[in-house]
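Subject: Predicted fold for M18 family aminopeptidase, 432 residues

User T.R. writes:
Posting the sequence so we have a shared reference for the thread.
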Amino acid sequence: MSREARLERLLDFLQRSPTPWHAVSAMAERLEAAGFRRLDESQPWELSAGERAYVTRNDSSIVALQLPRAGLDALRMIGAHTDSPGLRLKPNAGQVSAGWLQLGVELYGGALLSPWFDRELGLAGRVHLRHADGRIEGWLLRVERPVAIIPSLAIHLDRDVNSGRPINAQTQMAPVFLQGGEEADLQRLLLEWLEAEHGIRDAEILDFELAFHDIQPPARIGVQGELIASARLDNLLSCFIGLEALLESDGTQGALLVANDHEEVGSASACGAQGPFLGDVLRRVNAQLGEPGDEGFIRLIQASRMISCDNAHGLHPNFLDKHDAAHGPALNGGPVIKVNANQRYATNSATSALFRGLCREAGVPVQTFVTRADMGCGSTIGPITATELGVPTLDVGVAQWAMHSIRETAGALDVEYLTRALMAFCNRAELA
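User M.O. replies:
I've generated the structure tokens; pasting them so everyone works from the same file.
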């Protein structure tokens, strides 16, 4: 598979995935095209050796399974998350000011706010409807044209703005939506957009989960196309790479991709990494194909390995002092092993050694990130999944700039590098 074709698929995936629900829908579409069978958590499962299947929860988290052709003795697990920081609509979003209908927003996760100003914003998410016959149904909505903007205040009215000032999310981040509008106009427009996108008529909106998104499409940038610029690279880039590796693996070994929602807000939900989703799936799989009982399940988990994939902070040419001098990962320098002595990352020397061996097999360069000792460290689903399941885990990722901005940047070469390393992982017979 050519590197250029992979990058084109990445750009298409990013464009189609303005929300976690859209990302999971796009991933499910690719899985089904590759022969994966959809499982329903509320129904009995009948699994067979060598089968490929997937299951979703809340339509925003997904587990894809490649079951081994022989006995289920170990799983090669790849983890990522589907959510990204941003602006979510409040339930009663409409607010009128100076003759404009604005939409009140709630911050989702640790969004970098200043880049949201003066961007052309679309609207996307999940809407639940009651049809005329009483049926309640959920639909995805994606408005791709610019319907809102958060205008900056002119520098003439705020001369000290470039000296830095706090941004008040309650009073200064409400996007401008419609001149002369009122609350009812939002409901009317949502119904119009649902009719245009899905042909839905004669329905009542009961509730929604909607978010603003930047409509500028993802792009290759740089004189030689060295970089990828897009919204939501953290962490849809890892979702895409994990999916590519699973789909292109040889299918001989037991392998799994889990992409959880709600990482950016702590992972404590029914479909988050701190919730029971992955454990529920693994117990059902083990009950049918593995050694039954608690002992069999524990043996499976301890023989398995998890690679948690979440982007890393790349060395910024304008802010070199923000990195430890010996641990500044370069964009296009290969996957980054993320290490933290206080367990903010799950990497240890044994799991790191496994990944370094995989990179050597795949002919891929590898880097290491450790945060400065005088700075705080973020975290991932890695330590949470390791805590919940007990599976030996490490944290890796692609280096990027502008994490949690409305538009982030990563290296084009790193997409291929990490995909090849994860393919080697999925194909590896021995994990010890």
